[in-house]
Amino acid sequence: MKSKQNIKILLEKTIHALNNDEPCILPTDTFYALSVRANSSLAVKRLFEIKKRDLNKPVPILISSLNDISNYCDTSSETLQKLANKFWPGPLTIVLPLQGGIPKEINNDSGFLGVRVPDHSFAVDLIKDLGQPITGTSANISNFPPSKDINEIKSTFGSNISNYVDIPCGKETLSSTVIKIDNNNVIDILREGPITIDDINKEIS
Q: pLDDT tens across 103-157, in order?
């Protein structure tokens, strides 16, 4: 268990790295994330190189609240508000129509953006202190499974990552549920995880 002072030092070190466009490994409530500042095109390109991810595959971003994406997406939808109030912070990624302001590499210029608030105090405090969203893609090479083992991740990425935050992830054992809400408030389930289709339908019915 790290002390409050140690946590503060880790936050400051990680913010410094992110502001220098360096990718970092961060704990979340599901698995470790490979994170860069979401609004840095240079950092996002570096992330895709390190992860060996197909540029056609978008990456989600992590936020501390809906206010963090007010410049990128319309957050006024009643459906969105209901789901965010019920399931955030937590393992629900919501894909929303994008209005602009995010590097096209994040979402393959698709017109949509995946967002979520992780249920992990370090990640949320980091986003608040940084003052902007970060990428939330899992810390693994593409097509390999995500991990909660920081040593395994260090072995995978080595010196490609300058900052590994060695704080345990949360209790979730599945990757987040992913849903898409279009401009007509129609919901499409893209991936079922800890939050089920029934959970979501119950909340919006």
A: 988 988 889 999 999 999 999 999 999 999 999 999 999 999 999 999 999 999 9
Q: Is 5 exposed, middle or buried (0-12, 13-18, 19+ CB in 10 A)?
A: exposed
CB 37 within 8 A of CB 53: no
Instruction: Read off the pLDDT of residues 28-57 as tens digits, 9 standing for 90 and up.
Output: 999 999 999 999 999 999 999 999 999 889
CA dist., res. 47 & res. 189, Å (int)? 26
Residue 148 has what DSSP assignment? S
CA distances, 81 to each of 76, 168, 193 (Å):
7, 30, 20
Distance CA 119, CA 111 (A): 27
Maximum separation of any 2 CA atoms in the chain, in Å: 49
Q: Where are the beta strands (DSSP E) in the chain?
A: 24-26, 33-35, 61-62, 92-97, 112-116, 134-135, 137-138, 163-164, 177-181, 187-191
Which of 7, 187, 35, 180 minimizes the C-alpha distance to 96? 180
CB-CB contact of 60 with 136 (8 Å): yes
